[in-house]
Amino acid sequence: MQNLKELFEKYDLRLTDSQEAMLLKYYEELVEWNKKFNLTAITEQDEVFVKHFLDSAVGIRYLPSGASIVDIGAGAGFPSLVMKIMSPDLDVTMVDSLNKRVTFLNHMIETLSLKGIKAEHMRAEEIKEKFDFCVARAVANLSTLLEYSIPVLKVGGKLVALKGLAVDEELEGAQNAMSVLGAKLVKKDVFELEGNSRAILVFEKIKETDKKYPRQKNLPRTKPL
After folding, report:
1. 204 forms bridges with which residues in the sheet?
2. N or C, which end of the chain is more exposed by having fewer CB within 10 Å?
3. Partners of 95 in the beta sheet?
4. To the nearest 5 percent, what fractions of the chain are helix, strand and coil?
5. Which has the closest alpha carbon to 120: 162, 156, 62, 80?
């Protein structure tokens, strides 16, 4: 069994005793709720520590202190709930279209006594607020993700996308979406986490997005830009 603090320290991420306790409680609750809600296919402790917790935590490096962030397709809270535990001054909105996930997220917010974070049951198309940052992990291919996320950012805001290694192919396929939506790639980092190849892409919103985006009726997924 891996020691969570030691694992994080290998990647220059520091955990306080309180943060470590929160993540361990998060793991316990995730496994328990997963029995009835099917929140994740990964439940073995070491795998959760690396593939959910550590993978989410590395994204904190791309967010300034106190940023207002939205997590579209938050699922079981990766990456945004982990990021909130790591950086308590973040203002976090978690959005998911499945009510059972939102129920779990609200349970975790209450269980961990977190402030400045909320979970909402809605689709990306329904978000009216504009944010400084959007974070996303394992949501959709890049063209689809850009269409859901860029419209909810302020001009100058950034999308931090946590991805697997096939990013060059995805980037090539997303050029039109970037042009249409007003986004440009400003950073691409590729790295290894305990033998798993990962990438983080950062996009900046450089102009207002046409109000017709994101399109309704699941078109961003079925007919990507």
Report:
1. 158, 184
2. N
3. 72, 120
4. 45, 25, 30
5. 80
Cα–chain center distance at 134: 8
Crossing angle, helix 99-111 and helix 17-37, to 10 degrees?
150
Burial class (CB in 10 A: 0-12, 13-18, 19+), 38: exposed
Domains, the chain: 4-222 (3.40.50.150)
Q: Which residues of the chain have pLDDT under 70?
A: 1, 138
pLDDT value at residue 221? 87
What is the structure's pLDDT at 40? 87
Q: Angle CA(153)–CA(157)–CA(162) in degrees, nearest 5?
A: 90
Q: Per the structure block, which two tokens stand in for 142?
A: 């890049």
Q: Are strands 153-163 and 196-205 parallel, antiparallel or unpaired?
A: antiparallel
Sign of the C-alpha dihedral computed for residues 83, 88, 91 and 92 taken in this order: positive
- How far, CA to CA in Å, does 6 sit from each of 15, 19, 53, 54, 143? 9, 13, 13, 11, 36
Question: How far apart, in Å, do the first and last CA atoms of the chain sit?
Answer: 44
Q: Residue 122 — φ and ψ, nearest 5°?
A: -165, 170
Within 13 Å of residue 140, how many CA atoms lie on the same side as its CB?
Answer: 22
Q: Dump pLDDT digits (tens) for 96-114.
A: 999 999 999 999 999 999 9
Question: pTM for this one?
Answer: 0.93
